[in-house]
Request: fold
Amino acid sequence: MQKKLILDSKQLDITLSRLCQQLIENHSDFSNCVILGLQPRGIFLAELIHQKLKSLKLSVPLGYLDATFHRDDFRRRDTPARASETRVDFPIEGKEVILIDDVLFTGRTVRAALDAMISFGRPAKVELLVLVDRKSTRDLPIAADYVGKYVATHDTQRVLVELQAQGHKQNKIWLINNK
Amino acid sequence: MSKLSQRHLLGIKDITREDIELIFETADNFKDVINRPIKKVPSLRDVTIANIFFENSTRTRLSFELAEKRLSADVVNFSASGSSVKKGETLLDTVNNILAMKVDMVVMRHASAGAPHFLSKHIKANIVNAGDGTHEHPTQALLDAFSIREKLGSVEGKKIAIIGDILHSRVALSNIFALKKLGAEVMVCGPPTLIPKFISTLGVKVESEVSKALDWCDVANVLRIQLERQQLKYFPSLREYSLYYGIDKKTLDNLKKKIVLMHPGPINRGVELTSDAADSQHSIILDQVENGVAVRMAVLYLLAGATN
Reply:
């Protein structure tokens, strides 16, 4: 198993700052915005973005969205995926929703998340922010609006996101060769 | 990733503590789903479920049907009255005919203990036991334990008294298995004629005085007297039963600590519980009903998801 470092702690911080600036560019004061982190791993990134915006005196409601029950691979894998908590304590009807996930791969999770999100209302607009966009691996016509880093990968490779919030020593993003 | 150790839910006796905990965690998420504006998820949209009820039921059947519909499953209902069972068809033939119409799961209630176990040896579909005679009623026990966990934080170490007709109750037996597996202390209480002789071999305390049971417990799960299953006279009269074993609000208020009052329904008001007790602050009877849908969604989801 080979590991290649894509982003280290410092680079990640710069990337997050840039993503926040891009969000500010499009949403200025975030008056009609909400952030939804996708369970299970997107929530940590969503927290980081949320904190960074807060340090810039910008407050945006933050929620967690779990799309497990809306996945299209149910009964097509050996075991059902384990569900996580959904916490959306605010209305999303008419809002601009920023969906946040760590890695964009096939796009199927995002499709399921869009479905799950509609259960809470009809947003005015939905945008997608991802830390890592794996190029040319999409199964569905889905693209991110904000991307931390583009990475060209094969199906056999895996992107591993290690964040301090998940209990790791340092923030590090790896590309892993399974062969 | 997570799945149950069994393909069917026939009884609590057959499943592990890990299974029960997985069902609870999944049910937490479904409880959230059924409290949303849109109470439905598409998980089981390509699954067909037959609810086969050879015995009467309102709550359980409705609860299963709602759980199935909230998961987007296709549902067919079957009840023994008005069916070919009356014309002499065997259980296996009836079920095989239903399965020939491409049904993936069967939820069955039957008056004979072991009927779903028998069926599980002969058919491919997943089976959920919705009550078999006086044997087990696993989903009721799961929702009871889930409700205790929700109310008191956990089941481990809690003292639960099951009060009433233990002899004829499948709810009692399934509850004992579930609560013991989750680390609770269990006591059964009722007239000695309605307590099975060897029940203490299951590791439960036996008490014949209801006031002592109430003093001891954190949770009282009160059961109905199942007159329809009693071929003999086990006690002189319902009035006398009510006098000695009925629970009223005054008794509950006079206890040293506040206990939780549960009942699997249907309640015979004025027999095992007075109306003021059933509707009091102590009671979580309607929470149990709400949790029933979430717990059954979890069971169906986990069983359906592990088939391939």
Observations:
- The first strand of chain B starts at residue 48 and ends at 53.
- Chain B touches chain A at residues 1-3, 25-26, 28-29, 32-33, 36-38, 40-44, 46-47, 71, 301-302, 304-308 (CB under 8 Å).
- The CA atoms of residues 42 and 138 of chain B lie 25 Å apart.
- Strands of chain B lie at 48-53, 74-79, 105-110, 126-132, 159-163, 185-189, 205-207, 219-222, 260-262.
